[in-house]
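Checklist before submission:
- one chain only
- standard amino acids only
- sequence pasted in full

Submission:
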Amino acid sequence: MTQIRAVLLDIEGTTSPIAFVRDVLFPYARAHLPALLASRADDPEVAAEIAAVQALEPGRDPLACLLGWMDQDAKITPLKALQGVLWREGYESGALRGAFHADAPAALAAWHRAGLRLMIYSSGSVEAQQLIFRHSVVGDLSGLISGWFDTRIGAKREAASYRRIAAEAGLKAGEIAFLSDIGPELDAAREAGMATCQLVRAEDGTVAAGNHPHAADLPGAGRVLGLAEPA
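Returned file contents:
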């Protein structure tokens, strides 16, 4: 059996409550997006993403496109990038603080101490991921993470994305365990050769996919995968 050397984690529904993303982050971005586009359309960072929206939806109003994608919870890169810009300002102002499931910080710290490489793969932009960890309710957790991946590496339900992550990490796919609450994401990771475990958290209302090992929290996932226990 290949030894697990790295853990690749989703955020929403895995390390952090779905309600935090759904009820805090998304409404914050929606409320502040119109002002961002109106006041900073010439800012190179914002202008690049507006251009990307226009390339995807020629002739349509960028704000209407973005709001429509938000309604669909679409995993589209320019939307995620602009959400990241807004969340950065929210975290830096103190209006936002990254929420984590109670078991997550200790489990991540234990795995890190045990020498496991921890990496994040989320549909949110890399910047948005880093902000949640850097400005968390329990302090800066970003130092535990050695790799960050978003949809620029590929879609989360495609096996090729996980193969690219393994290649970028310099690891064999079988040396990586992927943890997520979403069955089709786990299917893709397993197809790429990774070990998998589904997080089935009662708080998030997750339903077990039935074709992957599952656990109710990160320590449980660690036991399923034979990883270090929190102290």
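Reviewer check: The first strand starts at residue 6 and ends at 9.
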